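Feature request disguised as a bug report, sorry. It would help if multi-protein outputs had a clear separator. Right now it looks like this:
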Amino acid sequence: MTTSAGQQTLKQSLQQELSAMQELHQKLHDEQNALVDDDAGSLIQLLDQKNEVLRLLTELEKNRFQLINAAGYRKDASGMREFLDQNADSAEHALWQDLLSATELAKEKNRVNGSLIARKLAQNQAALNVFQQGSDTGSLYGPSGQTSIRSSPVKGVIVR
């Protein structure tokens, strides 16, 4: 059984999660701009900031699951739906739907950014391939990430 204070706490938790998710959207948007602009410095900063927001989201989700578990529901999405169906007011339902929509949007933004990264990697690999054409040195980097360029003797040079 939940009290109105417990429901208010859940409402606050959902509001905090939605706020953090909106912050993640901004970081993903900034990341996309940095990828398009080839701004490596910003990407490094954004990675740390994005990880911090993701850590906060994980913490808030755990808090939300603890709240519904304390009310006797499972600590998962189905427990959340059951809790909302049996206890929540329309504002909590709306917050939950907004959070679900925001999460889907963040997944899509992350997918787009992943595609941009994959395209940048392919372009970089193509550039490396151009530099390596006609060379018998093989791959520039080995599986360990270390350079694997082998030197070959220069023809026409007398070594004493």
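(second protein starts here, but nothing in the output says so)
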Amino acid sequence: MMDAVEQTENKMIVFQLKENEYAIPVQQVLAIEKVLHITRVPNTASFIKGVINLRGVIIPIIDLQNRLGIGAIELTEKTRIIIVSMDNVEVGLMVDGANDVLDIPSELVEPQPEVVNSVKAEFISSVANLNKRLIMIMSLEKIVSPLN
């Protein structure tokens, strides 16, 4: 008979913002794209970079650094847009780099600590301590909420 406490793993896409690592559940990610032409949209929040046309779908792009209150993103070769789907709304999150898909065992995920750097704590749902890597797990609901 199986033990009641099952080892569950959470597949996460890990990405960089400045020198920190963040993660979002892979099932919410539709694609990871290089930066495409972004069309500015007047009178939107400062963290909204604009919109892109991705294979015929218009997707708003959020500068995740700006959204978290840790500056604006600088475009480099590594900059990526992570397309996520939240309540049937597709949004692109602009990040410094996205390069890992990790299985994060549930027992390594801890509730968010009292002080999470300078990042607005409301956007972090939990933290994973994986082989000396501290990975902050984002709450997509909070990041995307002003858009729905």
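Even a blank line would do. Unrelated, but nice: Residues 140-144 form the longest helix (5 residues).
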